[in-house]
Specification:
The complex is a heterotrimer of chains A (264), B (580) and C (771).
Chain A: H1 2-22, H2 27-50, H3 60-82, H4 90-122, H5 132-153, H6 156-170, H7 175-179, H8 184-196, H9 202-259
Chain B: E1 6-8, H1 24-31, H2 50-56, E2 58-63, E3 68-70, E4 78-90, H3 96-99, H4 109-114, H5 152-155, E5 161-164, E6 169-170, H6 172-177, E7 184-197, H7 198-207, H8 209-230, H9 239-248, E8 250-254, H10 260-268, H11 271-277, E9 280-282, E10 290-305, E11 308-315, E12 320-321, H12 323-331, E13 341-354, H13 355-365, H14 384-398, H15 404-412, E14 421-425, H16 434-442, E15 455-456, E16 459-461, E17 482-484, E18 491-493, H17 503-507, E19 514-517, E20 526-528, E21 536-539, H18 552-556, E22 562-565, H19 570-579
Parallel strand pairs in B: 1-20
Antiparallel strand pairs in B: 2-7, 3-7, 4-5, 4-6, 4-7, 8-13, 9-13, 10-11, 10-12, 10-13, 14-16, 14-22, 15-16, 17-18, 19-21
Helix pairs in contact in B: 7-8, 8-9, 9-13
Chain C: E1 19-21, E2 44-46, H1 48-72, H2 76-80, H3 87-93, H4 112-120, H5 130-138, H6 155-164, H7 205-208, H8 219-222, H9 241-252, H10 258-261, E3 262-264, E4 271-273, H11 281-288, E5 296-300, H12 306-311, H13 333-340, H14 343-352, H15 366-388, H16 390-404, H17 411-415, H18 428-438, H19 442-452, H20 458-464, H21 475-481, H22 483-488, H23 508-515, E6 524-525, H24 531-536, H25 540-546, H26 562-578, H27 584-603, E7 606-610, E8 615-619, H28 626-637, H29 642-647, H30 649-654, H31 662-665, E9 668-670, E10 677-679, E11 690-691, H32 698-703, H33 740-744, H34 756-759, E12 765-766
Antiparallel strand pairs in C: 1-2, 3-4, 5-8, 6-7, 7-8, 9-10, 11-12
The chains are: A mainly alpha (264), B alpha+beta (580), C mainly alpha (771).
């Protein structure tokens, strides 16, 4: 629905723009101002989020949809504005780069918000991002207690913990993992633990099981940390650059007005 | 962190009386009137004396002719005793202009925007008592505004009404069962009424059997017929048949009025024996000897599946069980047993109408069309499975198909109690916390819910007040600080009258009420002068009362993941699931 | 999973708090009692959102800083420039460095504040319009006042042109880029900063049709048919390609090669007509000049019956015996004109009408006799005056003749006449001698006749005597002045017997006669070609005083062989071809004139006194003969004057047997600004400096093999009338019209370009200022 509307809007705008270009108008004004309008509207979404109690401002979901559609529309307008060619002025290249980065991060973010929640849900485990560090700490504490317990009877688990698990439990995960989280490490660990069973008494196995569960929990935490972190990080780029973009485009507009050719 | 403490006097129940202008003379006068004159003051404890109750939990209202005392559909937490004058009771809804709710206080735009920079960084900041006088205990009710009818016969059909005289008690049902008012009461001529808030009434009933019986009989006389008239099949029944039915009706109560007590412990146990432990109202295969109306609470509709029971649906207030069996048996002179099991989920009020009056008065007089269809004729070699399959189909027909798992999740978690539970679709939720932020922004920078809670597959019931149909949190609130807003029906806590006793928080089965330490504007915690422990207040979601456009959380969710759903019927949730 | 899991978070997470517990990332630890007992204390740390906020703030601040420094930096303009200029502009502005912006932009060297004010005041703040800045440099090739108007054509004219063209199919009406005054900014079409190689002049057809609403999809389909090609107005030389290609060339067994006569100019895009000497001379030189070409008569004595006149008391004094007899003979048109200067005679001629001839006169009729005598005296006066001062007399009389007829000739017409050339190469002596031989006492007779006949009006007297108000007693001066008086005072002048034998006459003319057999016996050719005879029988001192012949130019430098001249001509011609066009025509003329004047010496021609029929005649000595040109121009300029018409002088040029046959090839046309007919002496030449709406360049077409043959486009149509003598009237229809189809053969979609601006100019007018 909204998609078709957007497409129609883009086509209509493109037709209008062509009409103008063919009639020797400077379409840069049309596209430029539309683009700037879109920009302001898109930036306004952030403001709306700051005023949730404003009943007049409509639901955030509606804003989100508009944000997406207008964003894609603006991308089309942007392409028309630069005439499908890399601008060849330094200043304009910078401006274009800014826009592309913001828009790109937005598209990426959209993809994230559509795909990641499913993955998170699939883990069957929920945690609030801010609490993950604390949860980790608790896990480590539990694990250590557990190891101390076992240490009384056997050193197998303790040794194993020190050599293999500690790394996994007590250190933050690698950057690579945060980019593409995978169960590999934890799986292998758990497998190796199962291997240990033959050296363990029934009770020790029990605590080994517990350690396994701890490892699984840690895995879950790390997984959530990676993905939820991603969901938050892309906004750093997206929002971080927005105001800079607005500033630069304002100057761009002023210059365009001052230097625009034509009669006065 | 060395935060100096600010000592104040710990609030007590009756710190804030129901009405400031109740004098001892009034109390004396009341003590001379029935039923109080008959009561034995010794039966009351010194802490909750009869006088005390009358003084602090009652007030005397004066009405002019046509004043509307209570309105059908309103939530009221007080009962009325007519001291002087008459009143008219009508079950028919009032004309639109009287039915509409009193206006809520709206926040001005500027006020809203100003919150941006007036964001309060002190958690749970409160004005120190004394800095500002406490308003009288009145959840909107203290406002002197009253609707009234110009000429009663012109507005309502007198024939459909009945009359209340001096000394009669009314409104107690809604007060006690935390249900909306079932009827409208209009003062007929100038009169005087004693209004008891339900805490008071509750205490009185505890101590005085006469009153309890009186209340019961009152229910049978007044509310029962009203209730019957609102249930399907009986609605269009003729007056005198209805009366007959009413006379035959029996009251039954299953489960524990304060079911929430051991709910927590129950929830740990396995689903199978949890179902087993639920008190049975009607057992599958048992003799279908009567029609069951659910007056209050919830009942699980399940059926034998293999060795255990499978939840098919749940019945809420006002729904009927067994009509189909009765009809079938009446039609083709058979004797089919119950095809399903009805169990009490927590606490259930049942009205049992025996088979005889039904066949006598109801079935003949109800249009055939509105009656349920008969069962398929039982084939001679019919196995149990056919029956089961048939039941299955019927069950499906009866309820929108929420899959059993989700259904049981809702029932076992008692979420079916929630009229506006916060349901989050985790497949959409990006965990961005915008909902929490919005909530905080609307509540002086204090969030009022937790974005976590029990979940079934991708559906999470977040830790926000569900504004239950059966708000057990209200039970035992000493000051009545917690209660329903008359117009919106939301369960609200009056922060000014909350004494931070934590009863409600303890009794909320979903632990959606949080006790918070309050601080003064300087950020220092406020402590009790005597005991020196920090004062707390009970806090919970107030469904953004007074904020037009619905709760901020829902409106703040960018991905439509968070919705506030009425779970008392499966349909709304089902519809939402369908749109996903 | 079903169990409510609210362990670990019995407090609310306060998202708006900037500082959170370093342990549980929850609001500063009043809320979380989770780890109070734990060993390590809990230090508040910034929340994720605070980080984000700080980052955002930082980036924004950074951007602002960068922008400010950018605006402040000396290389501001370089950085802000939206892109490189086109090659031409870049080169010009290269010197001005980073200051170059303001040579095209009013805002160039302004401050940011000005820009902002300009932006909000929608261009009021910086009043300098860019287009005006463009015109600072481009004023050479564009007329300042029309520079911004569509096509640089003044609106009224443009409207007229538009009205003349039919616009049928209307397209979607688009936004008009012009402003209120109908002006177009240069930047409307010419958009800079699109790279060095960018074509500033590019214009799509659709863009043309912003204003030209008649919708043209492609040249071959929608372009209107050509109507005026080849344009007949461009036929300056009446050269019938059909006849020549089909008749004359085959007869001469030479093949008809277009490129022989049509040569490229330097640019190669305009075809020129090769000079006469290259093209036509081979066959037509004899008709144009020299003895074979017919004589043109300036003056001739009619047969006069002196006896009858004398009887009637209207004696005309001396009259050559051999023209004494019954009235007979025509008056040559030129002489008619010269006589018409005398109003009395003018009236007579007018009365007598065009066909007047002396034969018509009746010796019995008194009026006839009177007219005859007046004309006779007029002729005498004319000879006298001509002998007195030829050029002056001719000019005065011709002007008088035209003006007396009440026609005031347009000045520019007069300017086009080279009066001095009317008698080029004609020396007064020829008349002096004619006078001496034909009517010896001319001067005396005239003065007497003047006295005896006071009835002559002022005009006549004025004419009769060079200096109008000269009193009688001053005759002596006059007599001294006029060569004829010398005759009177008995100074010997070479006398030629009426029948001179070649052998006993030692005079060079005889030699000349031998060299030129065309001249009949007894005809003495122009004496001034041989000074030697003069020097012999005239004593130097008085000759030095008043012999007009002493003014004759020395002829030494003129005597070099013709062939050298010719080769020289070719070489010069080639060099001329290599250099461009504008003075080309003049150069060519001049060069040809030199060549011809030399030829005139070798090949004879020029002025002749014929003592047999008492006439002064002229034979053109060269192509574009100055004398003929002068007379023809005169006849054209004053064509409207009655006298000129009646004199029938034009016929003397246009007739089949006219001297030099100038008018057979050189067509006349009435030029646009005033309707005075002018002869197009020079072949049609399309000046590449003048931009018309349409342009065509032969050069690219020549390179195409298929078009190497000119006739593939310019097809000569062999129409039936081409052999008829009346090709003048047939309108030179010797070329089949070039139709749109001809071009559309190649210029169609997928073929050669068919865009509007491939053939049409937007900017119309002259490239060179003034033109």
């Amino acid at each position: 629905m909204g998609v078709t509307l957007t497409i129609i809007a883009v086509l209509a705008f493109w037709f209008f723009e062509t009409l103008q270009r063919e009639s020797l108008q400077h379409t840069a004004w049309t596209t430029g101002y539309s683009l700037f309008g879109c920009l302001l509207f898109l930036a306004a979404f952030n403001l709306r989020k700051k005023l949730p109690f404003l009943s007049a401002s409509g639901t955030s979901a509606m804003w989100m949809q508009l944000h997406i559609y207008v964003a894609f529309f603006s991308i089309a307008v942007f392409l028309m504005h630069i005439g499908l060619a890399v601008p060849n002025g330094v200043f304009e290249q910078a401006l274009a780069l800014l826009y592309v980065t913001v828009a790109g991060s937005g598209v990426y973010g959209l993809y994230m918000t559509r795909t990641i929640p499913g993955k998170l849900t699939a883990t069957g485990f929920e945690v609030i991002f801010e609490q993950i560090p604390e949860k980790r700490r608790q896990l480590v504490a539990c694990a250590r207690n557990l190891i101390l317990e076992t240490a009384r009877s056997t050193d197998v688990i303790a040794k194993f913990y020190l050599h293999r698990v500690a790394q996994f439990m007590e250190r933050p995960r690698s950057l690579a993992y945060n980019f593409s989280p995978s169960l590999r490490t934890s799986k292998t660990l758990i497998e190796e633990m199962r291997q240990l069973d033959r050296y363990l008494s029934a009770t020790q196995r029990e605590s080994s099981r517990q350690l396994t569960t701890l490892v699984r929990k840690k895995e879950d935490l790390d997984y959530h940390w990676a993905l939820q972190g991603r969901l938050k990080l892309w906004l750093f780029v997206h929002i971080g650059l927005t105001y800079g973009l607005v500033l630069v485009s304002v100057l761009h507009g002023v210059i365009a007005h001052a230097f625009g050719g034509g009669l006065r | 962190m060395s935060i100096k403490e600010v000592p104040v006097q710990r609030p007590q129940r009756w710190d804030a009386p129901f009405s400031a202008d109740m004098t001892d003379n009034d109390v004396e006068r009341l003590l001379t009137l029935a039923p109080f004159c008959a009561m034995n003051a010794e039966a009351f404890s010194s802490k909750l004396s009869l006088r005390g109750i009358l003084k602090y939990d009652c007030r005397i209202n004066r009405y002019k002719a046509g004043d509307i005392v209570i309105r059908q559909g309103d939530y009221g937490s007080s009962a009325f005793l007519i001291l002087r004058g008459d009143a008219i009771v009508t079950l028919n809804p009032l004309p639109a202009d009287f039915a509409d709710k009193p206006r809520k206080t709206r926040r001005s735009l500027l006020n809203s925007v100003s919150r941006l920079w007036r964001r309060n960084h002190v958690a749970e900041m409160r004005e120190l008592p004394g800095e500002q006088p406490l308003p009288p205990i009145a959840r909107g009710e203290g406002a002197k505004m009253r609707l009234f009818l110009q000429d009663i016969p012109g507005t309502i059909d007198i024939s459909q009404t009945f009359r209340l005289q001096t000394g009669q008690l009314f409104g107690e049902l809604a007060a006690l069962t935390r249900t909306p008012r079932s009827a409208t009461v209009i003062a007929d001529g100038p009169g005087e009424m004693l209004e008891l808030r339900w805490q008071g009434l509750r205490d009185l009933m505890k101590r005085d059997n006469a009153l309890r019986n009186h209340v019961d009989s009152l229910y049978r006389r007044n509310s029962l017929r009203g209730h019957l008239q609102q249930t399907p099949f009986l609605a269009e029944l003729d007056e005198r048949w209805l009366q007959e039915v009413a006379n035959e009706t029996l009251f039954e109560t299953y489960g524990d009025f304060e079911w929430n007590r051991q709910f927590q412990s129950l929830s740990q146990r396995d689903i199978a024996d949890r179902i087993q432990s639920e008190p049975v109202i009607a057992m599958e295969g048992g003799l279908a000897d009567s029609l069951l109306l659910i007056r209050n609470g919830f009942a699980r509709l399940s059926r034998q599946h293999g060795d255990g029971h499978q939840t098919i649906a749940y019945l809420g207030k006002g729904q009927v069980f067994g009509m189909r069996e009765l009809t079938h048996n009446w039609r083709n002179k058979e004797n089919r047993p119950w095809t399903l099991t009805l169990r009490a989920v927590g606490y259930v009020d049942i009205l049992r109408i025996p088979r005889l009056p039904i066949e006598q008065f109801v079935l003949p007089n109800v249009p055939e069309s509105s009656l349920p269809a008969s069962f398929a004729p039982l084939a001679t070699n019919a196995t149990k499975h056919d029956l089961l399959a048939e039941n299955d189909r019927r069950a499906n027909r009866r309820e929108a198909q929420l899959e059993t798992g989700l259904l049981e999740f809702l029932v076992d978690g008692r979420f079916i109690n929630g009229t506006s539970a916060m349901v989050i679709d985790l497949d959409r939720c990006t965990r961005c916390d915008d909902c929490v932020r919005a909530c905080a922004a609307t509540h002086d920078n204090n969030p009022r819910f937790l974005r976590e809670g029990p979940r079934y597959e991708n559906w999470m019931i977040a830790g926000a007040c569900m504004h239950c149909l059966d708000p057990v949190c209200m039970i035992g609130c000493p000051t009545g600080a917690i209660g329903r807003n008359e117009s919106s029906g939301n369960v609200l806590i009056n922060d000014n009258t909350c004494i931070g006793c934590g009863t409600c928080a303890a009794s909320c089965p979903y632990s959606n009420i949080k006790m918070v330490d309050i601080r003064c504007s300087s950020g220092k915690p406020i402590v009790d002068a005597k005991r020196g422990e920090t004062l707390q207040k009970a806090t919970k979601c107030d469904f953004c009362e007074g904020l037009s456009g619905g709760p901020a959380c829902q409106r703040a969710c960018p991905h439509d993941a968070l919705v506030r759903v009425d779970l008392t019927h499966p349909l709304p949730l089902f519809q939402i699931i369908q749109t996903r | 999973m079903n169990a409510p899991s609210n362990k670990g978070s019995s407090f609310y997470v306060r998202p708006h708090d900037d500082w959170v517990c370093s342990r549980c990332d929850s609001p500063s630890c009043g809320g979380c009692g989770e780890h109070g007992d734990d060993a390590e204390p809990c230090i508040p740390k910034p929340s994720l959102r605070l980080h984000r906020g700080v980052l955002t703030l930082a980036i924004t601040a950074l951007t602002t800083g960068v922008l400010i420094t950018l605006l402040a930096s000396p290389s501001r303009n370089n950085l802000l420039a939206p892109g490189p200029l086109t090659h031409a502009h870049a080169q010009i502005l290269a010197s001005s460095g980073s200051q170059r912006c303001d040579s095209c932009h009013g805002a160039g060297d302004r401050k940011l504040v000005d820009w902002m004010q300009d932006a909000v005041s929608s261009g009021k703040h910086i009043p300098v319009s860019q287009s005006s800045l463009c015109m600072d440099c481009h004023n050479k090739t564009l007329l300042q006042q029309f520079a911004l108007l569509p096509h640089n054509v003044e609106p009224a004219k443009l409207a007229a042109i538009t009205a003349s063209t039919t616009e049928t199919k209307a397209s979607i009406s688009l936004v008009n880029p012009a402003n209120a005054n109908g002006e177009l900014a240069c930047a409307t079409c010419h958009r800079e900063h699109h790279g060095v190689e960018f074509n500033l002049a590019a214009l799509t057809d659709r863009q043309c049709q912003t204003c030209h609403t008649s919708y043209i999809h492609s040249f071959e389909k929608d372009h209107p048919e050509f109507t005026r090609w080849p344009d007949q107005r461009n036929r300056h030389i009446a050269f019938d390609h059909a006849v020549h290609s089909l008749k004359h060339f085959p007869e001469k067994h030479t093949n008809f090669d277009c490129r022989k006569c049509h040569i490229d100019d330097a640019g190669g895009n305009v075809k020129l007509v090769a000079p006469f000497s290259q093209s036509c001379a081979e066959c037509h030189s004899s008709e144009v000049r020299g003895p074979e070409s017919p004589q043109w008569t300036l003056l001739q004595l009619p047969m006069v019956d002196t006896q009858a006149l004398a009887n009637a008391g209207k004696s005309v004094g001396d009259w050559p015996a051999s023209c004494d007899g019954d009235f007979d003979g025509l008056l040559p048109p030129a002489m008619k004109l010269l006589l018409s200067a005398d109003p009395t005679i003018a009236t007579i001629l007018q009365r007598r009408g065009e066909q007047f001839a002396f034969t018509d006169l009746d010796r019995e009729n008194a009026d006839d006799l009177d007219d005859a005598s007046r004309i006779a005296w007029g002729i005498k006066a004319l000879i006298f005056d001509l002998a007195n001062s030829t050029d002056q007399t001719l000019q005065q009389r011709l002007q008088l003749a035209a003006n007396d007829a009440g026609n005031d000739a347009p000045t520019d017409g007069q300017n086009s006449i080279e009066w001095s050339s009317l008698a080029e190469g004609l020396h007064p002596d020829m008349f002096a001698q004619a006078g001496q031989l034909w009517m010896p006492d001319l001067a005396k007779e005239l003065s007497e006749h003047r006295m005896s006949d006071p009835g002559q009006d002022d005009g006549a007297r004025r004419v009769l005597f060079g200096r109008a108000n000269t009193p009688v007693q001053q005759d002596d001066d006059l007599l001294v002045e006029n060569p004829l008086t010398r005759l009177l005072s008995g100074i010997p002048v070479p006398a030629f017997p009426e029948h001179a034998e070649p052998n006993d006459s030692p005079k060079v003319p005889v030699v000349k006669n031998q060299s030129d057999p065309n001249i009949p016996d007894g005809v003495v050719t122009n004496p001034h070609i041989d000074p030697v005879g003069r020097m012999r029988n005239a004593n130097p001192e008085d000759l030095l005083l008043e012999n007009p012949l002493s003014e004759l130019p020395p002829l030494a430098e003129n005597t070099n062989p013709t062939d050298v001249n010719q080769s020289g001509n070719i070489r010069q011609l080639e060099s001329v071809i290599n250099q461009t066009d504008s003075q080309f025509i003049d150069r060519m003329r001049m060069e040809i004139r030199q060549g011809n004047s030399r030829q005139s010496l070798d090949r004879g021609g020029g002025w002749t006194r014929n003592d047999r029929n008492f006439a002064i005649t002229y034979q053109p000595v060269q192509h574009i003969d100055p004398v003929m040109k002068a007379w023809i121009d005169y006849s054209m300029v004053f064509a409207s004057a009655q006298v000129v018409q009646e004199s029938g002088i034009q016929d003397s040029f246009t007739s089949q047997t006219s001297a030099g046959a100038c008018m057979r090839c050189h067509t006349s046309s009435t030029d646009s600004n005033d309707n005075v007919a002018v002869v197009q002496w020079s072949p049609y030449y399309r000046d590449p400096n003048i931009r018309a709406f349409t342009r065509f360049s032969h050069q690219p077409h020549d390179s195409i093999s298929g078009l190497s043959d000119c006739q593939s486009c310019h097809t000569i149509n062999n129409h039936p009338v081409l052999l008829s003598s009346s090709k003048q009237e047939s309108g030179f229809g010797d070329f089949a019209p070039i139709t749109k189809g001809t071009c559309a053969n190649c210029h169609r979609p997928g073929g050669a370009p068919g865009g509007c601006i491939d053939c049409h100019n937007y900017h119309v007018g002259s490239k060179v200022p003034g033109k």
